[in-house]
Amino acid sequence: MDRPQSDVLTATPFEIKGSMLTLLELRLHSTGLDAIAQHLAEKVAKAPGMFRSAPIVVDLQALGQVDGLDLAGLAAVMRGHGLVPVGVRGGSPALQAAAVEAGLGLLAAERRSETRPVPAKAAAAGGKTRVVTQPVRSGQQIYADGGDLVVLAAVSPGAEVLADGNIHVYGPLRGRALAGAHGDRTARIFCQCLEAELVSIAGHYRLFEELDPALRGHAVQVFEDGDNLMLQPL
């Protein structure tokens, strides 16, 4: 007897594939849970829609081998603000064990070069510039794998544009723009009209509410200078 077509289509119940996901990072510089909770509450209050049900990673790398952090308590605080903690990056063996016990995953440590920065175009080696001529609608994600991204139209609120290299937006930028998506800290964002929900270089981000009001609606470039995310008029 022939198997029903539906059974054939579902013979393999799932497949596991790599994907390019955008995750917020909570990069810790201290272990004081009360201070972290207060500062997080202030951040969420400025942009509640930005953080609602957003997956987030706790970056422990700056803490070195410090063990005194209540990870289960921190995860509870984040969930209380509507965030979804999914894992930790780095940290001491004791903190990684605590993360597993708290139901969090372990992510590979971020590789940061201690030598002279690689020129921005090096990130695009082997990758082509991706050019988008149509508006990027809410809910869409456009990614330039291994190269730069050029958008000749508007990026709507709720839309997301990512690139391993630089991002150029020639219409209003109202959604999220994440350049240097795989860690290139020399990448830049260039836009003709800055109204972004979020801009990010190599995971270092700034929210709309944190942008200088004098820059909103104007042509701006975004880049990293040391550990600072800089926004300057073009």
From TrEMBL:
<dbReference type="GO" id="GO:0000902">
    <property type="term" value="P:cell morphogenesis"/>
</dbReference>
<dbReference type="InterPro" id="IPR016098">
    <property type="entry name" value="CAP/MinC_C"/>
</dbReference>
<dbReference type="GO" id="GO:0000917">
    <property type="term" value="P:division septum assembly"/>
</dbReference>
<keyword id="KW-0717">Septation</keyword>
<comment type="subunit">
    <text>Interacts with MinD and FtsZ.</text>
</comment>
<dbReference type="GO" id="GO:1901891">
    <property type="term" value="P:regulation of cell septum assembly"/>
</dbReference>
<dbReference type="InterPro" id="IPR013033">
    <property type="entry name" value="MinC"/>
</dbReference>
<dbReference type="GO" id="GO:0051302">
    <property type="term" value="P:regulation of cell division"/>
</dbReference>
<dbReference type="InterPro" id="IPR007874">
    <property type="entry name" value="MinC_N"/>
</dbReference>
<keyword id="KW-0132">Cell division</keyword>
<comment type="function">
    <text>Cell division inhibitor that blocks the formation of polar Z ring septums. Rapidly oscillates between the poles of the cell to destabilize FtsZ filaments that have formed before they mature into polar Z rings. Prevents FtsZ polymerization.</text>
</comment>
<protein>
    <recommendedName>
        <fullName>Probable septum site-determining protein MinC</fullName>
    </recommendedName>
</protein>
<feature type="domain" description="Septum formation inhibitor MinC C-terminal">
    <location>
        <begin position="131"/>
        <end position="231"/>
    </location>
</feature>
<dbReference type="Pfam" id="PF05209">
    <property type="entry name" value="MinC_N"/>
</dbReference>
<keyword id="KW-0131">Cell cycle</keyword>
<dbReference type="InterPro" id="IPR005526">
    <property type="entry name" value="Septum_form_inhib_MinC_C"/>
</dbReference>
<dbReference type="Pfam" id="PF03775">
    <property type="entry name" value="MinC_C"/>
</dbReference>
<dbReference type="InterPro" id="IPR036145">
    <property type="entry name" value="MinC_C_sf"/>
</dbReference>
<feature type="domain" description="Septum formation inhibitor MinC N-terminal">
    <location>
        <begin position="14"/>
        <end position="85"/>
    </location>
</feature>
<comment type="similarity">
    <text>Belongs to the MinC family.</text>
</comment>
